[in-house]
Write a structure and sequence with these properties.
Elements (H helix, E strand, L loop, with lengths): L1 H27 L1 H26 L2 H23 L2 H8 L4 H35 L6 H16 L1 H12 L3 H26 L3 H21 L13 H34 L4 H18 L1 H19 L3 H28 L1 H9 L7 H30 L3 H25 L3 H23 L8 H12 L8
Helix pairs in contact: 2-8, 2-12, 3-6, 3-10, 3-11, 4-5, 4-7, 4-10, 5-6, 5-7, 5-10, 6-9, 7-8, 7-9, 8-9, 10-11, 10-16, 10-17, 11-15, 12-13, 12-15, 13-15, 13-18, 14-15, 15-16, 15-17, 16-17
Length: 466
């Protein structure tokens, strides 16, 4: 009996050791780390969104959404100039080169911050002097965004280093520090404090500052490397970044333009923004895996292209695009069926009277989600091929199409449904244009996405690190 018990114990130990080894392998997997980072942050963001819909009335919540959307848009403008270029340069650099790149990137963003402060506050003074009435969300942005831009400079600049090093666990900690602190405040506010919109904005500024200070103390953001900034590196960052910035800004406009234009409508206004934000938020949640895999695909594709391994770059493109599209299919079908329950869960009883409209809009967005991988990875491959201007052209065309459709939908038909339909239409335009531009640079066959995806699934175990 004793011998048998000892044998069983040894077997248990071996099984436990194997399980621990497999978990360690999964923990090292870059795609999984990136996904975990984005899912964690998105979950905290989802809870914050749900608390805000229940703490603010429709008008105030619409003002908050417009303020945050504008802030996110301008953040992309700022960091789009340096982030992708920094990721590209930071891959495989020495410590001295790293200090030069981070310091140069930080100095560029400081100059952009000064310009933003001047533009926002001068414009706010002009509107006040001329007594021009604009949506409250726009006023909040002009007054408070310059302070937010200073508060979030550090942690945003550090993201380039994390992505280049593929250190998604560190990225997760920094981003969770930001959204986690804000979530804790919202919970306290929901149950005990009962504070309003302005106090919520002030706390948001504070938690961004805390995250940035943490990155500065750990020497991740580049502030302490400002003396190492050099003109040649700044020029290289700006040269590449001017295209990727335009691409990121235009990409942001693809979604943000909906909110901006709805906010200008006297008929829809802040209440319209609040209603449209709910199905849009659900769509953003469905896109989380795509953002995660994009962050891991870009360095890999770039490395293959820089080394002239076009066959390998094509294979990565086919695999990522095909696999993620297959992953999205059951999620999109489930979301289409359960749309009403999902909208009510996110928005709460305040939006029960608009439930049929918001459900229909969200079902339109599930079609858009299915198209996203094709559109996104054509852009990633264009950037990896060092053709950021092509990617910029593609996104500009999509953005112009979206703005035109939005203007017609909002000011002619006064319809949120047509705004959502426009999202599907401009994505289709982007897919066709993306493939057209890629085929000018590299041989691409759509059918190979299916082949490579199934080959990847068959050999899945070989893709885990040893």
């Amino acid at each position: 009996m004793g011998k048998a018990a000892g044998t069983i114990q040894v077997l248990h130990q071996k099984i436990g050791s194997v399980m621990v080894g497999k978990l360690k392998k999964l923990g090292k997997e870059k795609n999984l780390s990136s996904l975990l980072s984005n899912v964690s942050v998105a979950f905290a963001g989802l809870l914050s969104f749900m608390l805000l819909t229940r703490q603010l009335d429709k008008e105030a919540f619409g003002d908050w959404v417009l303020f945050i959307t504008l802030s996110t848009f301008v953040d992309l403008l700022r960091f789009g100039l340096t982030r992708n270029a920094s990721v590209r340069l930071l891959s495989g650099t020495t410590f001295t080169e790293k200090k030069q790149i981070l310091g140069s990137s930080y100095r560029i963003n400081l100059w952009l911050l000064i310009i933003i402060i001047l533009v926002c506050w001068v414009l706010a003074l002009v509107l006040n002097f001329l007594v021009i009435d604009v949506n409250n969300g726009y006023e909040l942005f002009l007054i408070w965004y310059p302070i937010l831009a200073l508060a979030n400079l550090g942690w945003n600049n550090a993201l380039a280093l994390f992505q280049a090093e593929q250190n998604f666990n560190r990225m997760m900690v920094v981003r969770l520090l930001n959204v986690g602190l804000f979530l804790v405040f919202l919970l306290l506010n929901h149950f005990w404090l009962g504070l309003g919109l302005m106090e919520i904005i002030w706390v948001n500024l504070f938690v961004n500052l805390v995250s940035s200070l943490w990155c500065t103390l750990r020497k991740w953001d580049g502030l302490l490397y400002l003396p190492n900034a050099v003109k040649p590196v700044e020029k290289e960052l700006i040269h590449f970044g001017k295209y990727s910035m335009g691409t990121l800004v235009s990409s942001s406009l693809l979604k943000s333009a909906d909110t901006f234009i709805i906010g200008l409508s006297p008929f829809l206004g802040s209440a319209g923004i609040a209603m449209y934000a709910i199905p849009l938020k659900l769509t953003d949640l469905l896109g989380i895996p795509l953002n995660s895999f994009t962050m891991t695909a870009y360095p890999r594709m770039s490395k293959s292209c820089l080394e002239g391994k076009m066959h390998e770059a094509r294979k990565i493109f086919y695999t990522y695009t095909g696999i993620i599209t297959l992953l999205f299919l059951p999620v999109a079908i489930f979301s289409f069926i359960m749309a009403e329950e999902m909208v009510l869960f996110l928005g709460g009883d305040n939006y029960a009277d608009s439930l049929p409209l918001l459900t229909f809009i969200f079902r339109i967005f599930t079609v858009y989600v299915m198209l996203l991988p094709l559109d996104r990875f054509t852009g990633v491959l264009l950037d990896s091929l060092n053709r950021p201007k092509y990617n910029l052209y593609k996104v500009i065309v999509m953005t112009l199409a979206n703005i035109l459709i939005d203007i017609i939908a909002v000011f002619v038909f006064e319809s949120l449904v047509l705004v959502a339909v426009g999202t599907v239409l401009f994505t289709l335009i982007g897919i066709f244009m993306g493939f057209y531009l890629l085929r000018k640079e590299i041989e691409i066959h759509s059918k190979d996405m299916i082949t490579e995806s199934f080959l990847f699934i068959k050999k899945l175990k070989t893709h885990l690190p040893v």
